[in-house]
Amino acid sequence: MTNTTNDTAALSAQHCAPRQHALDQGAVARLLPLVPGWAVEHGKLCQSFAFRNYYQTLAFVNALAYMTHAQDHHPELTVGYNSCVARYATHSVNDGKGGLSENDFICAAKADALYRATAHSAAVAA
């Protein structure tokens, strides 16, 4: 039996690297439990994040932008007043046809860590 919390932390500690091959369904199924709340929708790894207001939403989006720039792996974002939906996929795999790679799961784990930190700091400031 694996410890999902430790596995998730280990995933979050990794750094994105150039990927040439998409993950197969088995690999996606093994990695998905490491990013609770995320789901595969239309071939993308997706999660919706909720906030109390627009300021908190943008604080998270800015932190996410900083992290994704450092990882050189950028999500598609839909930003609302009190929510943000992040969608990850890797356009460069499958000879440019796209798919999911380990980078998507690494960034999802990092986004979750940012969300926990943002939610905690917002609760302290409230």
Strand order of the largest sheet: 1-2-4-3
Instruction: Summarize the biggest pleated sheet.
Output: 4 strands, antiparallel
| Cα-based radius of gyration, to the nearest Å | 14 Å
Proportion of strand residues: 15-25%
Total beta strand runs: 4
Helices, by number, come to: 4
Mean pLDDT: 91
Summarize the amount of helix as a percent range: 40-55%
| Order of helix and strand elements from N to C terminus | HHEEHEEH
What is the 3D shape? globular
- Quote the distance from N terminus to C terminus: 39 Å
SS content category: alpha+beta
Low-confidence sequence ranges: none
Question: Could you walk me through the main structural features you see in this protein, from its secondary elements to its overall organization?
Answer:
The structure is a single chain. This protein has 4 helices and 4 strands. With 126 residues, the protein is of the alpha+beta class. Strand 3 and strand 4 form a beta hairpin. The N and C termini lie far apart (39 Å).
